[in-house]
Design brief:
The chain is mainly alpha-helical. It has one domain (5-121). It is 72% helix and 0% strand. The chain is built from five helices and no strands. The radius of gyration is 16 Å and the shape is globular.
């Protein structure tokens, strides 16, 4: 599909300060959690909140500008943040998969969902209706 010029203007990722707040901070939180494993409950929470924050930011961006990868990566990260939160605090069992296994899967899959859909479908879905 073709890129939507209007979408790129409204894309939060093209606004540096907003991009740092919406995605830079949660990614920093996820990475920083690796250094806090002496406090696992804090680290679990930081990773889950980081993925949830980034996912909700993608969903908001998808609604704002119709960015292709945000429609895929956003909902995925929101769902996985809930799974991570439940697994990290022991509310669910995951068939022998550790919290770290699930977090790594989430991170790698989010990157794939960031890169692949836009290679196939372009950066933005078609123009939204005007109402």
């Amino acid at each position: 599909m073709r890129e939507n010029g209007n979408g790129s203007v409204r894309d939060y990722a093209r606004q540096p300060l907003r991009a740092i707040l919406l995605w830079g901070l949660p990614v920093t939180m996820i990475v920083a959690a690796n250094f806090l494993m002496t406090w696992p409950r804090l680290a679990f929470g930081m990773v889950a909140v980081g993925f949830g924050w980034a996912g909700l930011s993608c969903v908001a961006n998808a609604l704002q500008c119709n960015r292709v990868h945000c429609w895929f990566a956003g909902p995925f990260m929101v769902v996985m943040s809930i799974v991570l939160l439940l697994r990290g605090y022991g509310y669910i069992e995951t068939g022998g998969l550790s919290f770290s296994d699930i977090a790594n899967f989430t991170g790698v899959t989010a990157i794939v969902l960031w890169l692949v859909p836009e290679r196939i479908l372009g950066k933005y879905f078609g123009v939204k209706g005007t109402g």
